[in-house]
Amino acid sequence: MESSASLELAKHTLLTIGIVLAVGTFSGLIARLVRIPDVVVLLLAGMLLGPGVTGIVNIRPDSAINQLVMIFGSSYILFDGGASIRLKVLKEVWITVVVLATAGVLVTAAITGVAAWYFLGLAPVTALLLGTVIASTDPATLVPVFKQVRIRERVAQTVMSESAFNDAMGAILTFTVLGVAMGAGQFSAGDALIDLLKQSLLGIVIGGVLGYLAAFLISHERFNFLAEFAPVVTLMAVIGAYMGADGMHASGFMAVFVFGIMLGNQESLGFRLSKTEGAELDDYVMTTALIMRMFIFILLGTQVDFGLINQYLLSGVAVVVVFMLVARPVTVFLCALPDRRARWSFKEMLFMCWTRETGVIPGALAGMLVGMKAPGAQVIASVTFIAILMTILIQATTTKWVAKKLGLLVK
Prior knowledge:
Layout: H1 2-34, H2 38-49, H3 64-84, H4 87-101, H5 103-120, H6 124-133, H7 139-148, H8 153-181, H9 189-219, H10 230-247, H11 252-264, H12 275-302, H13 306-311, H14 313-336, H15 346-354, H16 360-371, H17 377-405
Helix pairs in contact: 1-2, 1-12, 2-12, 3-7, 3-8, 3-10, 3-11, 3-12, 4-8, 4-14, 5-6, 5-14, 6-8, 6-17, 7-8, 8-9, 9-10, 9-11, 10-11, 14-15, 14-17, 16-17
């Protein structure tokens, strides 16, 4: 009887995978026809497939398969984004990236928290908790958008790098405030800063070491034993980087991003792949990232709780409007304007103000708070999904148009 139940579960899972792939492929074609980033169509398709509409796909947010997809999918997409980063560009804008990913998260969380306190009537600490959950940008959303919309290189790479590096800050800040909200501790800026530095530096070291090792074994002139298995190496190393960093209480997402940077800048490290091997690896990474994107955003769409969103719709929308149109611009101008080395133009900063999509990471944090029965968790989850829907449906769809108006598109 148990084997029969297991077989049925396996068949159902396989059918779900097939449906997601089929719908994802069709969504990609639609996105190409209407010329918008595919994450938008994938999210909408997921909402139609989910329990709130047709119920064709019903995978619980706390299920093992959902967690597997979200962790590995986000990691691989982030690795793909890291591989797109050029070190020479990062050297020029690293100050802005660091300030946006640290102080910028604090500024965004504070302004959003004030909006949540005013519009939702939450207690100050609960309002701040909401602000911390949605304060960090989402690499799983931003990386695919910039893969499809060609923006001036340094702007695109700054926003992608920020989204990778601010993951640690967002998570640390969220759980620090959560401890205060649940009466388990007091906020300590010093402890939070030390924890941030620890997570960040360990993540960078782990990603850097694994990235160099992978590049060495794939592309070294004499010791390229794994050149033939380069695609498999990327899978192993992404898993190894994330799990290694996570096991050492460091930022797994930062580790996979740095790993991607190392592998994507092999020539700067003195290594070189043949054109054929390089093209094969690029095709593999692009296809795998596409599949992960399909699963992440379709599943994210199926988990939208329409009843919960409707309960706090108007006040939640008001909070997200402040979040998008006040918190982000203030954050960008405060963090980027002082960076004299980067010499940002007004149009470049204006574009960065508009690109701060919310997605998988804030959604996962909100889900964890619900599971922990944190104060105001249901309200936080509701506003988080409103933020995900509004930023992806409004900002991602208009990224190309805004870039064109500001003269930042490249051919």
